[in-house]
Amino acid sequence: MKTNQLLAGVFVILLIPTSIKVFAGGVDYLEERPKLFDGLISDNIAVIEIRKPKSDDSGKPSVGKDGKPSLDQIVFERSEKEWTIVSGPFAGQVKARGTDIESRILEPIGKIEASASTIILDNADENALAGYGLDDKSATILRLIDGNKKEVAQLIIGRSAGGIDAGSDATSGTYVRRPKEKIIVLASADFALDATEDRWVEKSVQDIDEAEVVELHLSNEHGEVAFKREEKKDWQVAKGPEDVGAMRKDEVQSLLSRARSIVVQDFLVGQEHPKHGLATPQVQVKVKTKDGKVHLLAIGKQIEGKQQYYAFLQSNPRLLFSLADWDVTPFQKQPKDFFDPKKDPKEDPKEDPKKDPKESGEKGDPAKGNTPKEVGDKPKPAPGDKPPVGKKAPVKK
Q: What is the 3-state secondary structure of 81-148?
């Protein structure tokens, strides 16, 4: 009995290292899946560049007179947590959508695997590269540069998988490769990246925390209206029209929501022109915050042939943009629209105690004998009522 127990214990002891090795091997296999850009740290990326061949009307790559493809190019630069577009007509003036850069570029490029299951061809010739959209005339080039201006990754992006593919190749993802290599890899992500500003630009040009706003001021062709509030108190009228009723809180709240958050329709190339009507704006919206800053939005004339208006922010007057007419309409209200109408005393008269009950629709009480029939009649006193002060009760005979 003791011998059997001893042998069982030895078996368990010998089994433990084997189990650990098998388990560890499984974990290592999952963790050691090779990445195309091993060790890439997205937080270290300071500059991103995308170059993409232009397409002609037929959808084919556009080629210049020198025989080289015509390219669209866009460059992003990171400043703290924000990305700015530093190429094109709005270089350094507009922000890029940081969430799109993270989700469409930085996250997926770090996940591209270079394993037996993702490698399509390990030595593709020129025809194969062209077939997968990875030749010089068709491919999109993505470059990642760190803060020391050193290129840490370059990805050549071809066409999307599926569509013209058949059989086992009919799948999803994007065909990619590294420069100077002819190994074609199928990335699981969709790397259909555009190289034009309109696909990446952040169109929210003003987004102020509602709790930080202490003053609102609106002026337009109808006049001016202003509201202010103190800490943890309701809005008060700072300037408004005469002969109006109470302030409409919902209208002031609506003005606050519109003024603090400005989303443009399009950014406009060029400087301010007299035809824009911004030298003397038709509408001005001022938002003052707790830190004393005044944020001014100026709106000019309507753009000819469009349901849009010229506009700019005082913080960056060189950057012109357009606002949709439905975003401008709330700023074109008359000052009186923020108030209830003033009540007319004639429409809400107070009750006259001397008024004939017949005219007011009131009824007397026959039990007490006070049913006057004509204006001016005095009601008879009910039995037991005391006489008015200063008068004697009638003497009974």
A: CEEEECCCCCCCCCEECHHHHHHHHHHHHHCCECCCCCEEECCCCHHHHHHCCCCCCCCEEEEEEECC
293 and 209 together in one domain: yes
Of 313, 341, 369, which residue is a domain's last? 341
| Structure confidence at residue 356 (pLDDT) | 53
Containing H/E element for 295?
strand 294-302
222 and 143 in one domain? Answer: no
Confidence of residue 66 (pLDDT cuts 50, 70, 90): confident
139-166 mean pLDDT: 90
Residue 251 inside a domain? The answer is yes
Polymer length in residues for the chain: 397
Give the torsion sign (CA, 248, 250, 251, 252).
Answer: positive
32 is a domain residue:
no
pTM exceeds cut of 0.85: no
Give residue 390's identity as a one-letter amino acid code. Answer: G
195 and 266 fall within a common domain: no
Report in angstroms the alpha-carbon separations of 393 from 37, 369, 370, 383: 114, 18, 19, 12
Cα–Cα distance measured from residue 391 to residue 375, given in angstroms and rounded to the nearest whole number: 24
Q: What's the mean per-residue pLDDT of the chain?
A: 83
- The closest of 212, 242, 211, 236 to 224, measured between CA atoms, is 242
pLDDT at 359 > cutoff 80:
no
**Count of domains observed in the chain:** 2
Which tokens belong to 304?
């000819």
Question: Do 214 and 261 sit in the same domain of this protein?
Answer: yes
In tens, the pLDDT along 178-188 reads 999 999 999 99
Bridge partners for 289 per DSSP: 213
- Asked if residue 194 and residue 89 are part of one domain, the reply reads yes
Per DSSP, helices labelled H in the chain are 2-31, 98-101, 107-110, 126-131, 249-260, 325-328, 357-360
Same domain, 213 and 327: yes
In this structure, are residues 141 and 156 in contact, taking their beta carbons and an 8 Å threshold? yes
Domain-terminating residue out of 326, 341, 356:
341
Task: Provide the residue range defining the domain that includes 124.
Answer: 42-199
Task: Tell me the average pLDDT across 137-154.
Answer: 96
- Which has more confidence, 239 or 383? 239
Neighbours of 6 (CB within 10 A): 10
Whether 357 maps to a domain, the answer reads no
